[in-house]
UniProtKB/TrEMBL annotation:
<protein>
    <submittedName>
        <fullName>DNA repair protein RadC</fullName>
    </submittedName>
</protein>
<dbReference type="InterPro" id="IPR037518">
    <property type="entry name" value="MPN"/>
</dbReference>
<dbReference type="InterPro" id="IPR046778">
    <property type="entry name" value="UPF0758_N"/>
</dbReference>
<dbReference type="InterPro" id="IPR025657">
    <property type="entry name" value="RadC_JAB"/>
</dbReference>
<dbReference type="InterPro" id="IPR001405">
    <property type="entry name" value="UPF0758"/>
</dbReference>
<keyword id="KW-0482">Metalloprotease</keyword>
<dbReference type="GO" id="GO:0006508">
    <property type="term" value="P:proteolysis"/>
</dbReference>
<comment type="similarity">
    <text>Belongs to the UPF0758 family.</text>
</comment>
<dbReference type="InterPro" id="IPR020891">
    <property type="entry name" value="UPF0758_CS"/>
</dbReference>
<dbReference type="InterPro" id="IPR010994">
    <property type="entry name" value="RuvA_2-like"/>
</dbReference>
<dbReference type="GO" id="GO:0046872">
    <property type="term" value="F:metal ion binding"/>
</dbReference>
<keyword id="KW-0479">Metal-binding</keyword>
<dbReference type="GO" id="GO:0008237">
    <property type="term" value="F:metallopeptidase activity"/>
</dbReference>
<dbReference type="Pfam" id="PF20582">
    <property type="entry name" value="UPF0758_N"/>
</dbReference>
<dbReference type="Pfam" id="PF04002">
    <property type="entry name" value="RadC"/>
</dbReference>
<feature type="domain" description="MPN">
    <location>
        <begin position="103"/>
        <end position="225"/>
    </location>
</feature>
<keyword id="KW-0645">Protease</keyword>
């Protein structure tokens, strides 16, 4: 079904202008971004295929350029570029919000923010959110890459960066490309090591968040901190 074949008040653009963006489904909003489908597949069908392929909008936001290129109909650079631009706008908007308000006024926002930044990586990365005395975001830095163990994440480097940012506290974060967000014994041991090292310079560890495509876990919420 093409957009032109729909009744005027059911077309996504007209529906959005008349009733507001909240009235549109995920598929309809995505169809507005895509604008056109491909031969034999309308834009609504293509949008639904994207939603299904990535397990919803959250999974789509985790997608990188290579992931999008595998979807037939997104082989050209223009549509991929537009979707990636929307993803980057979402990251920047959330970072701006976290810089102007207390991070832990909305714990879910922190997890979503970290998912947007870390879940798309195909390899493990370790990042730190540096926070001021009001728990507002100063900076997010990816400090280590590769297979993460207690010996490949260096407490001294994290302490140095915390002091450079004049951070009062931090949120540790890393991704599990395998898809599970359950912390390992090594994750728990590493958290305690970093907590002790940062405590020596009066920097608190508020949380350690593990992210994966489609999910995130707060070790603080699980009582593991």
């Amino acid at each position: 079904m093409t957009l032109q074949s729909l009744p005027l008040d059911a077309r996504p653009r007209e529906k959005l202008l008349a009733r507001g963006p909240a009235a549109l489904s995920d598929t309809e909003l995505l169809a507005l971004l895509l604008r056109t489908g491909l031969a034999g597949k309308g834009v609504l069908a293509l949008a639904q295929e994207l939603v299904d392929a990535f397990g919803g909008l959250a999974g789509l936001l985790d997608a990188g350029p290579a992931d999008l290129k595998r979807i037939k109909g997104l082989g050209g650079p223009a549509k991929r570029a537009e979707l990636l631009a929307v993803l980057e706008l979402a990251r920047r908007a959330m970072a701006q919000q976290l810089r102007t308000r207390e991070v832990f006024g909305s714990p879910d926002a922190v997890k979503h923010f970290l998912q947007l930044h870390l879940a798309r990586h195909a390899h493990e990365v370790f990042a730190v959110m540096f926070l001021d005395a009001q728990n507002r975001l100063l900076e997010l830095e990816i400090l280590f890459r590769g297979t993460l163990t207690q010996t490949s994440v260096y407490p001294r480097e994290i302490v140095v960066r915390a002091l450079a940012h004049h951070a009062a506290s931090v949120v540790l974060a890393h991704n599990h490309p395998s898809g599970t967000v359950q912390p390992s014994r090594a994750d728990e041991a590493l958290t305690q090591t970093l907590k002790a090292a940062l405590g020596l310079v009066d920097v608190r560890v508020l949380d350690h968040v593990i992210v994966a495509p489609g999910g995130a876990l707060s070790m603080a919420e699980k009582g593991l901190l």
